[in-house]
Amino acid sequence: MEKKLTAETCTLLERHKGFILLIMKRSLILSILFFSLTASSFSQKITLELGKVKLAQALKSIKQEANIDFFYSDNELDVNRVVMVNYKNTDVLKVVSDLVGVHFNVEKTGDNIMLITPVVIQTFQNTIKVKGNVSDENGEILPGVTVLIKGTKIGTTTDFDGNYSINADEQSTLVFSYVGYASQEVKVDGKSVINIKLKQDISELDEVVITGVVQRKKESFTGAFTTVSREDLRAVGNLNVVQSLKTLDPSFLVLDNNVMGSNPNVMPKIEVRGQTSITTEGIADEFGGDPNQPLFVLDGFETDLRTIVDLDMNRVASITILKDAASTALYGAKSANGVVVVETIKPQAGKLRVNYTTDFRIESPDLSDYNMMNAEEKLEFERLSGRWTAPGYDPNGQFELDNIYNATLAEIKRGVDTYWLDQPTQTGTTLGHSLYVDGGSENFTFGVGLNYKNQNGVMIGSDRETWGGQINLNYRKDKLNISNILYVNGYDANESPYGTFSNFVQANPYYRLTDENGDITRFLDENTKVGTLYNFDVVNPLYNSTLKSFDNTGNFSLQNNLRVIYNISNAFRIQTNLQLRKGVTTTKTFLDSEHSSFLNTTLFEKGSYSNSRIDNFSYRFNAMASYSKILNEDHNININLRAEAEETKNERLTVSAVGFPAGTNGNPAFAFSYTPDARPSTGLSVYRRVNVLGSANYTYKRKYLFDATYRLDGSTTFGRNEKFSPFWAVGLGWNLNNEFNMNPEQVQMLKLRGNIGSNGNQGFGSLASTSIYGFNQTINVFGQGVNLATLANPDLEWQKTLNTSIGIDGVFFKNRFSTTFNFFNKNTDPLVVAVDLPSSTGLFNYPINTGNLVSRGAEVILKFSPIFNLENRVVWTLGYTATMITTTFDGFENSLKSLNDGQLSSRTLQRYRDGFSPDDLWAVPSLGIDPATGKEVFLTKDGQQTFEFDTDNEIVMGNSRPDVEGVISSSLRIKNFTFGAYLRYRIGADRFNTALYNKVENISREDVTLNQDRRALYDRWQNPGDVSSFRAISLTDFTPISSRFIQKENELIGESINLGYDFSSANWVNSMGLSSLRLTAYMNDIFRLSSIQVERGISYPFARAVSFSLNASF
């Protein structure tokens, strides 16, 4: 126990302090001389991570760790004061001095004793009492902050609620310092109240790598990773964490969805360091994920993409992207595509705190990429294309066509020129609210959060309403730490009743929106028959929006995460985690009987209804033992042993009905029947997985680093003869700055690292380790028959990726300049591919192992601050990121011929061939249009020119992946003002221009009646001698895909521009009872410059956004 002195004893001690110290010091010298001691406990460095505890507990732990005793007066030292204990390899004297604060002197004596005595207080001539509160940038209170009068040893520390009080000269300067935060100096200038907000120190923020399983020190980590803070995410935008994260790290790519555009109900497709799988139909069942998508981890537990997209980003503390084998090996069979670890803000002890954020976003449809004809142009295009010329000798038909043409021309002369593109669109608004309340005592803390967001898309009627609640409870007593987080979430999503946007793009501009009475009619033109060929029943695309159709999806989910940690000692601890998840998703779709899709349907099948319910339940349990120790100051050892078991069950029931009377509202009770020849549909999948893990990390003298991980996984996803598979990783690192004793003022970090390992991929569905049979509807004398529905592949192997990575990290000139260079090679072998068996079997999508896929690439992250004045809070930082990736297939031979034939018949430009990339665009080379005939000239493989198209001549004509892609950024902070700009660039991508292929050429006789791209009128060949890029305007036959439609594209996108101001230091903010107040404005995807003209957002347009965010803390 600590030796506590009474007041009388303390007085005697103070009186004879000099004499006592003289004796003790001489005794210490004699001990050194006679016993040749080379070190004592006071030169010992200790590692102690207790978090927020009472000072008494901290001193007790130091005594046990360093084997020393303390002498102090319990009348003078408040041992019940809460302090923050988080030290790694730190001298014990500095640790104790920090903990007791500036009011006390800590002196070393002999016999493993530390003497703690009060500082003699200096008085000032013009002394005033200064008080205030200290918090971080988010308004979270900071207990234990040191408040020192500059130039003296006089000071104090903030209490449990972040408050302080000190007597100081009215002209003095106060210095505020705290572990993990940048120190701040403030002149008193006669003020009696000074409230301070400390900013996180960049070097301290990056000190720890959060992997979701264990925390690792950045200095000793051999893996490739990127960590971004809540402030980084909020600086880019306020929509969701995925859209912000893609701007901050070059390896995290969100692929543009050119079909669904900015539809709020469509989940993004994400890649980290390229692809590792072939995504064909059948490779995943209805419950399976994207096999090229990274694994997501929320607060230490696995989760799905939808949860991350809907996550309240105001509660996010940090996100870490783990990229290579050494960093992701902890996740074994699920980590081939990288791991994204999300940590939310933990509740803090102290008085009750309230944080509120409101976000408002305005989105406008981006229609600038559409280049459609106006009314006059469209009618002329139809004339030149032969629409108004009757085939053969048909004078009656020609007479009727002339009448319709003249009537349409008259309408145009009267000014009819309808712009259909803005009819189904709107200015979409999003309003979000986030409220979080936390507080607690030393042993128990709590946090309660609520969030709500109503996002309206840019197509009328499309919206997504999300809501959620979170309860975070933490209990800590001595060696026991228990935490529990309960998430309650849901969403309600609606698709637009206007249908697909392409219907409005193709609507003819010479038709009026409504009739003479202002009513929206079902048809724009009802000349049902002209001659013997033409049908002029033209559906009004607006009409469907007036019906009672709907497409709605609702979800409710519960998730509970329980964690128990027991610290057996400072070096050894055990941890258990239990996660339970339950979710229900219901999708209801109704098409009114008057819907245009039922024009040619019998009466009793007009209208359709579908109701689908998916129930899912999962549990995950793991236990881990960890050992961490520093031996002789040079050897740092970390060892982890972990075991885990999990099960996921998904169940679906779908019921469909057809035939509804006109005017019904979608009640299935009004349906005439179930869908003909159909029955209620069900689906069931159960995934079970187990794994055991061992990992070790060793650091020698903070110079040489070693990581090793081994994990054995078992899963029901693959063949029953291949239930288990090992995964491993080995990493090495070298801290060059420590090796060569580089000047720490110039080089804060210079680390060379490399690793190699095997990762797996389980982003598939259930790949049928057992054959499945279904009952048929026939019965004979032998009984009821069964059909083989799914054929098992019992020998299906696990898909593995051999991941090799090297990199170098550097931080220079007191964090003014930082660099990261990564180079990687990912070899996935074997691949899992679903192929069709011979048609005689009646079986399709049979999973096999075949071929391999190699992804190679490099990443660059550079940051430089030309202005870096932290004292005056003026910082200007320039950033540059880049990623380059190439991928190659091999080992297929002829095993994927059926897939390649399917790609060819569907007019898709991707092929699965050895030595080529999944991003390659295959087409027949074209030499252009013959000026004499207006026909296309092709080039054969033997170099001959021909007018005949032959798919045997197709070769690689481009690659859809950019040569280089990244972000150029500039951020500026001047006092409380912030500005940031992030511009995305893509260079060297080849693109199949669907607008050229579908709306300039390849326009059939039926499609001539639809609106087309202006280039179909102005840029197509018309007369002999015309030099044109496109075939004759009169040709309405099929146009084969050739290299003419593949174009090189370079892009520059205004991904994010933001302005912000922090009002927290204003007096009027404090007078309102607020501890912080910040306003930020954003512009996202505000412009896009491209070297080619393409259509973007075929079924749903893209959007430009302006948004605002207001954050306040109480």
TrEMBL record:
Superkingdom of this protein's organism: Bacteria
SUPFAM superfamilies to which the protein is assigned, alphabetical: Carboxypeptidase regulatory domain-like (SSF49464), Porins (SSF56935)
InterPro entries (UniProt xref): Beta-barrel_TonB_sf (IPR036942), CarboxyPept-like_regulatory (IPR008969), Plug_dom (IPR012910), Plug_dom_sf (IPR037066), TonB-dep_OMP_SusC/RagA (IPR023996), TonB-dep_OMP_SusC/RagA_CS (IPR023997), TonB-dep_rcpt-like (IPR039426)
Membrane topology of the entry: Multi-pass membrane protein
Boundaries of every TonB-dependent receptor plug domain copy: 218-339
PROSITE patterns assigned to the protein according to its UniProt record, in alphabetical order: TONB_DEPENDENT_REC_3
Listed name of the protein: SusC/RagA family TonB-linked outer membrane protein
Species the sequence originates in: Snuella sedimenti
